[in-house]
Amino acid sequence: MGKILLVLTGGTIGSSTQDHIKSPDAKTALPLLLHSFCHSDSPYCQTEFDVIDLMQELSENFRLEQLNQIRECLCQVDWEEYDGAIVTHGTDTLSFTAAFLSVAMRGLLKPICLVSSRAPLGEARSNGEHNFAAAVAWIKERHLGGVYVPYENSGGRMYVHLGEELFGCDAQDDFYSLTMGQGEQSPWKHLFFPHPLTLEENVLLIAPYVGLDYSAISLEGKRAVLHGTYHSGTACTKGEKTSLLGFLQRAKAAGVMVFLEMGQEKKGLLEGDIYASTKELIEAGAVALYDKTTEMGYMKLLIACAYYQTEEEILAFLAE
Known about the structure:
Blueprint: E1 3-10, E2 15-18, E3 21-24, H1 26-38, E4 49-57, H2 64-75, E5 82-88, H3 94-104, E6 111-115, H4 128-142, E7 146-152, E8 158-162, E9 203-206, E10 224-228, H5 244-254, E11 257-261, H6 276-283, E12 287-289, H7 294-307, H8 311-318
Parallel strand pairs: 1-4, 1-5, 5-6, 6-7, 9-10, 10-11, 11-12
Antiparallel strand pairs: 2-3, 7-8
Helix pairs in contact: 3-7, 7-8
């Protein structure tokens, strides 16, 4: 029976509660996790794990530095020794890491499962033990390359999400994805990005809201902006400080690309009748980006800006 690599990054699944405060505590959480699994009814309860204590962070404190560390760690692995890997992670930024690794580790023929929990292990609301057992079973039974997120929702049903399709955790501490698919494999078949690949803080992600003041946003050191849109694929084009049109002019002068995050569900908006505001933005140079999730669009743009030098190369990559 092959081994599984277990990479610890912290999060709720790696935390304990002391005086009503949850904080990373691998010394408590790891023995609980492994003891629970090896005494479970899983047919794989005798699986051997190699453990890397990579970091102890709450995922809301993740920055690009942490994403670079996780990929660096996974790129150093001798994958011939393992059936796959499990990365423990907090729920707050899980969808961002899942999107990042789905692109940055594409082409890997072994599965990587991101495992989290809605409460610290051993507490009544915890589902971490079930998520971990599902990850082990997925790795042992499916043998599919790609990034996956096994997660038991509050109704008790276990889903295995494609990392590239995962949305952020909702108010009920549940996860959903575009297809809620089980058994699918990442469409990327070849390893494209060489090692190393280091993300830099050169991309802005902006969400639209009433009264957004673009004059307060600095473009210093940025190569690109991913700007969200309202449900109609629109953003404000009126006002001296609140018009995205003025921001587009400033970005163009600074050599910064601006993308409108449309999502796949808005793709038809530019093929039929569109709002005047959207037409103005496209004519002013904004590029519509139709990615599966906001997280995936943002991560693909970060990777593109880290790897490619020209605007043409970035646009070609984003169009894949």
